[in-house]
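B., you asked whether I could sanity-check this one before it goes into the benchmark set. Here's the sequence:
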Amino acid sequence: MPLKLPTLAITAAIVVAALGAGAYWWYGRKPPMPMVAPAPVLQPMAPPAAPSAPAASEPGAARHPIDAGDAEPAEASAATLKDALAALLGPENLLRFVLPENFVQQTVATVDALGREHAAPRLWPVVPTPGRFQTEERAGSLWLAADNARRYDPFVRFAAGIDAKRAAALYKRLYPQFQSAYEALGFPGRHFNDRLVEVIDLLLATPEPPGPLPLVLTEVKGPVPSVRPWTRHEFADPSLEARPAGQKMLLRVGPEHARALKAQLRAFRAEIARP
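And here's what the prediction gave me:
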């Protein structure tokens, strides 16, 4: 359930992709919890402002072309990329928050997945958010705990502190690597920057919930019992659960953190997209 880590091809790779790291704990590391009665479904929020799974950019001219005059070749070394990330983010932040190995490939895969139904944790280019996902039980119903947002404080400070102009300059310099990875992912002739802008716009369209979010545990049918019930949390409101992975992640990091991440995404978008 969370860019924060779970941000962005660089800022978007870090803010877009980063959103995913928090979800690591939502999907795979939470402790067992007892089954509880389904929470009451609140008044549904407005339907998604954008398609739940935006189509990949179509072949042809780029809608948001990248000026890559100073770009590194697509075969630039991993050491060059790691040094560039360290210069942008700082060596300590790089070690603490980012997984530089296969960064470009995993960033491309995560950015694309954030606009779809699922974003696989094994592909995130960031370090999982430490701690355990927090819920609370009230009157027999399960809710997303308000204190859960504190887990993301260090990462949000990190992501919000990235210089969007410098991040965009590095992204443009490395763009041939991102484009090559996107085509290798299964989108030959299509443009990664168009897809990145598309996903950023989808994340920016995430609504801000009016209050605490009720949760449910999905029902497991069949003779084999679930041995990991903590991986089955969903929003009780079906209009929220139907949203793409990236929007659900932003809903789960808390409204204050979501606003900070959106501000960074807007700043990065302004550097890589046509008005």
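One thing to flag: The chain has a mean pLDDT of 76. Otherwise nothing jumped out at me.
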